[in-house]
Design goal:
By secondary structure, the protein is mainly alpha-helical. It has four helices and no strands.
């Protein structure tokens, strides 16, 4: 991510926080919305995040607990409830 993109991202975050704290005027709100909607500014950032999410989904395996583990867990819970 380039310096300009970091600056833009920082400005948007700061302005969004100001909106949240009701310290901004209606004009600032509409300008922020216009800036967020500007594809040339934020599409590279959004695309990078999308690619990262796809990478994580493809490379990280979600392990399913074994049937024996579930059976042991159920019996442990039952014995503690008694």
């Amino acid at each position: 991510m380039g310096s300009q993109e970091k600056d833009n991202r920082t400005k948007v975050i700061k302005r969004a926080k100001m909106l949240k704290e009701n310290q901004s005027l209606l004009q600032d709100q509409s300008q922020l919305i216009n800036d967020i909607d500007a594809p040339q500014t934020y599409n590279p950032i959004l695309e990078e995040e999308k690619q990262f999410k796809q990478f994580v989904k493809a490379k990280i395996n979600k392990h399913k607990p074994s049937d024996q583990f579930l059976k042991n867990l159920k019996s442990h819970i039952k014995s503690n409830l008694s």
